[in-house]
Amino acid sequence: MKTCLYVSGKLMQVVFGHWDVVTCLGRSESYIGGNCYILSGSRDATLLLWYWNGKTNSIGDNTNGERAAPRAILTGHDYEITCAAICAELGIVISGSKEGSCLIHSMNGDLLRTLEAPENCVKAKLIQASREGHCVIYYDNGHFCVFSVNGELHSTMETDDNIRAIQLSRDGQYLLTGGDNGVVMVWQVYDLKQLFAYPGCDAGIRSMTLSYDQRCIMTGMASGSIVVFYNDFNRWHHEYQTRY
């Protein structure tokens, strides 16, 4: 893996650990000082958990020039990793592979449980995890599944869009999705009920993120442009609807 300055693109650090191509990356929520955990998945069927030092803006907490080493090595998959997510607040890592079930590990590397999806859900493409204990997984057949961290399947839903990006709200109650149709949609997580659809764009959505205050949805488009949507999750909150 490489770390670069986003302003100039200058290469700052290179770390080694996997035996094959890195196929996905994940990042935990940040602590005070900008420290967080970085998760990397690879074609070698393993995941490595790294520590990001906000003070030195580098991977690892060694200040004497020693080579950075992963905090944990997560095993259990038989095929290349396709997606992964980390929730440091709950101390868990959720990952999916090209074939086989999704797995939940502790951040120490212990395999905790397997998430048993419906029979037609084989290859996980996208994963998000919330601090409320929800694991949202999108499979290549167009199905969404919501699991608890205990492995219980809460709900499923099928979509006709080829989803390319998903994002959970900070409180874990709402799910944003975007795909080739160019439409950002808002869903209620626990039952996958559709709440809202933003006006469609003229290109497919390839990536998505929320601003720190959760007020803006920023999407990267297939055309190379960036589209920003105003957002207010409060409009779907039951207390807000009752009061106003």
Automatic annotation (TrEMBL):
Q: Where is the signal peptide?
A: none
Q: Which PROSITE patterns match?
A: WD_REPEATS_2 (PS50082)
Keyword ATP-binding on entry: no
- Single GO molecular function: protein kinase binding
Q: Where does the Neurobeachin beta-propeller domain lie?
A: 8-230
Keyword vocabulary terms for this entry: WD repeat
WD repeat ranges are 156-197
PANTHER family xref list: BEIGE/BEACH-RELATED (PTHR13743), LIPOPOLYSACCHARIDE-RESPONSIVE AND BEIGE-LIKE ANCHOR PROTEIN (PTHR13743:SF64)
- This chain's protein is named Neurobeachin beta-propeller domain-containing protein
Which species? Micrurus paraensis
